[in-house]
Amino acid sequence: MDGTAFLWTYSEGVYNRAKKRRRKTLGHRLKLPFALVALLPAAQATSIAQTASVAATDGTLVGRVADKTENVPIRNAFVYVHGDRWHGDVMPPVNAAGEFRVQLTQGLYDVFIASGGFRPTCAVISITTGKTTSYDVNLSPDNEHLQQ
């Protein structure tokens, strides 16, 4: 780096870019690394505390989507987990065994599951901190709409 920075100025409705040469001094170079080293232990402690608090507030929702008549997995099912304004919405993928898994914060969620040719289902699921909640669904064929 050549010590050149750009300074943006605003005058008469126009932004102008001008080069500004920074002073290269030993003091300038030493202050930043020492400041970073001094803050590093505090940043690591904060990061560890945040990780612990996130893990402490999460629960897991696991489930399996299957055909009700044949009890075979539905791998192309659509799973939509709707939370309130603080929890947000999630669409976890469904694997070939018809299973899904998602980490959620504690609270109530509307879980909507659908697949082509089947009647959709929806339920309110409660997620508890540190617990795994299971929601297995057997979708019924939608015979009324399949015959049309």
Description:
With 148 residues, the protein is an alpha+beta fold. The protein has helices spanning 26-57, 143-146, and strands at residues 4-11, 14-21, 58-67, 78-82, 89-90, 99-105, 107-114, 121-127, 132-134, 137-139. It folds into 2 domains: 4-55, no CATH class; 58-146, Carboxypeptidase-like, regulatory domain (Immunoglobulin-like), CATH 2.60.40.1120. Helix content is 24%, strand content 41%. The strands form 3 sheets. Strands 3, 6, 9 and 10 form a 4-stranded mixed β-sheet that branches. Strands 5-4-7-8 form a 4-stranded antiparallel β-sheet, with no helix packed on it. Strands 1-2 form a two-stranded antiparallel ribbon. The chain is elongated.
What structural keywords apply?
24% helix; 10 strands
Query: Major sheet: size, sense and barrel closure?
Result: 4 strands, mixed
- Could you tell me the strand content as a percent range? 35-45%
Q: Report the helical percentage.
A: 10-25%
At CATH level 3, the topology of the largest domain is Immunoglobulin-like
Number of separate strands: 10
- The level 1 CATH classification of the largest domain is Mainly Beta
Structural class based on helices, strands and sheet pairing:
alpha+beta
Q: Count up the helices.
A: 2
| Outline type | elongated
- The CATH superfamily label of the largest domain reads Carboxypeptidase-like, regulatory domain
Name the helix and strand elements from N-terminus to C-terminus, one letter apiece: EEHEEEEEEEEH
Instruction: Please state the second-level CATH architecture of the largest domain.
Output: Sandwich
Task: Estimate the mean pLDDT confidence.
Answer: 76
How far apart lie the N and C ends? 70 Å
